[in-house]
Design brief:
This protein is mainly α. The chain has 4 helices and no strands.
């Protein structure tokens, strides 16, 4: 994902000032990781406004259960 699109998603979901506040609270060496997490959550929230990241987690859990039960 290109940087402008990353910012657009994060800005739309969290707001620029909230992101700046959150990032400042994270240790400097972990900030890039925190931003990546916010981008991931925001992109999922844009594509699935109701469930966002939780929807993806549920979907992956369902896939794991199918694999464990041999239903693939």
């Amino acid at each position: 994902m290109k940087n402008p699109q990353r910012f657009e998603f994060v800005h739309k979901v969290f707001g620029a000032s909230n992101v700046a506040k959150l990032v400042q609270q994270v240790a400097e060496d972990r900030r890039a990781e925190a931003v990546d997490c916010m981008v991931y959550e925001a992109s999922l929230r844009v594509s699935n406004p109701v469930y966002g990241c939780a929807g993806m987690i549920y979907q992956l859990q369902e896939e794991i259960m199918k694999v464990q039960l041999g239903e693939t």
